[in-house]
Amino acid sequence: MSIWDQNELDFPSEYWAPFAAHLAVVRCSSGYLIYLQNTCATCFYYLKRGRVKSFIQSEDGEERLLRIYEPGYVFGEASFFDELPRVSSAMALTDCELVAIDREVVEREFAKSPVLAMAMIRYLAQTVRMLSGQVDDMAFRPAPQRIAKHLLALAALNRHISITQEEIAAAVSASRVTVSRTLSRFAKNKWATIGYGTITIERPEALIAFCELE
Q1: Average pLDDT taken over every residue of the chain
Q2: Is the pTM of this model over 0.70?
Q3: Which is more confident, 9 or 193?
Q4: CB-based contacts of 205: which residues, under 8 Å, 6+ apart?
């Protein structure tokens, strides 16, 4: 099994795709605030088209990027299932098409397809694992490793990533200069191709080895 096959198993978008086919699509423009931190979660979302960021904001307005979602992902599911206020906000980075999935839909679909229910449990467990990994990264790993791991996570569905250096810096708590130098290093080693607002992962196995050995 290749690394790309393994990553696709980690994010089983084929399970969520039927929601996009049978439920109404909500269209929103770039900059639209999809949900707000500390509000009630009456639904979660399947992203059919576009890019969405999740982030947390402190009382003094400081923002910390948590994740960027690409088409095929679901987001906002954790607070939906534990029925507690949302711990983050979500905003459209581009024009988007979303499908809102409420409790009635979930109960009906889970009853029809236990496989879907198990896939969601796995997805939630992996989210917890990912957040635990982020805490470990911030505490113990140098910035270049954090950048490599972040790119590998983003490349799970598609190795062609749309992201800016500022977004990477915010996600891994590194300076813009450090991100630029690290990406230049990856490009020089031919591990990745760097474009304007885009990164293509050419040698994921090299990035994985870099994360393990540095």
Answers
A1: 83
A2: no
A3: 193
A4: 3
pLDDT tens digits along 168-213: 888 888 888 999 999 999 999 999 999 988 999 999 999 999 987 6
CATH class as words, domain 141-213:
mainly alpha
Q: Strands of the chain (E only): list them.
A: 26-28, 33-35, 43-49, 52-57, 63-69, 74-75, 89-92, 96-102, 160-162, 192-195, 198-201
The amino acid occupying position 189 is N
How is the chain split into domains, by residue range? 3-133, 141-213
Dihedral angle computed from the Cα positions of residues 95, 99, 103 and 109, in that order, rounded to the nearest 10 degrees: -150
| CA dist., res. 160 & res. 181, Å (int) | 20
At the fourth CATH level, the homologous superfamily of domain 3-133 is Jelly Rolls (2.60.120.10)
Residues in the chain: 214
Region 148-174: mean pLDDT is: 84
